[in-house]
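Entry 0007
Protein: Glycosyltransferase
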Amino acid sequence: MNYLIRSKLVSIIIPTYNRENLLHRPIESVLNQTYSNWELLIVDDGSQDNTRQLIESYSQKDSRIKYIANDRSKGPSGARNSGIIQSEGEYIAFLDSDDEWLEHHLLDSIEILEKKNVEVCFSLWIEKHAEKEIRVFDPLHTQNNLKQKASLFETYKNAIIFDDRFFEHYATDDGWFYHINTMVIQRQVLNRVGLLNEKYFTGEDTEFFIRFFAESKIALINNYHFLYHQTPDSLYNFFDRSQVDIESLCKDKALCDKITNSGINSNEIRLMIRKRVQQSKRIKDKKKCFRTIDGAIARKYLTLSYINRDDFRKSVYFCLLSLRYRFNKNKILYLFNLLPFRKTRAINQMELDFY
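Output (structure tokens):
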């Protein structure tokens, strides 16, 4: 990479709340980057622990690290927006306060952004559950999905460069390859797409992505750049979704409530995507897009119905919503079996969605 590219400032934004015991992890991963021209803005969303003292101990050693108190609406969107507004870099990257980048993340991302003149770059991630690492994109069906993308779009080294057909492709894709913590964007594109929507407490990142997907040149690096840690207090990744014991889960009301709230929010985002598909003038096969989106909405509502099956009204409500988006005779039988005098409430678990 030439000197001109290495000279461009990257603003890294970490929103945080009461993460004194975990914050060292993302900070150290930034310090270990092979790309060194960055500023790190850690935005404190009203922490009650020693978060500020920890950040200031780092900033005293490295002036690139800055403490910012969030002055916008509370939550990750407001904190990230505070960071964006006060940042100075030509590029902006995001990292959560309990996660970490691999050392090549910024260098490889900036190279693709510059060499291929793209506006947004993503890469892959490894899920970490305590000491267990899950290489999410290693399974054969996922690799085949990536190969299909590479056959449809331009490639450069290990990156896939999407063009204006991407939004339609995304709307019919059953894979998920996009994470805000691997996202590096050109600052100037925010003049067109705007900041994060602060009304969302979870799912705000997906809503943010969709605005880029519909009108920006995007790259996906087919390489692992990020360690995504599962912690009980994460807003989304608060349990191991790859190893779901449904019967145990249904007995844990607090966990069911968290999954339910997360699922409702996920479907709000899907409905927003559906609306954008409907409004798009570029998409050729809207029916295919609607089938994919409606199927995902229906699976999510059915999942919420099933995990809440001991709450008759709530379970029936979610099942009816699922039927609205995808009619299925098995759901009618399941709905009948929800009646209090019935004992059998089983459903094909292949129809459920915990992601």
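Curator remark: The mean pLDDT is 90. The radius of gyration is 21 Å.
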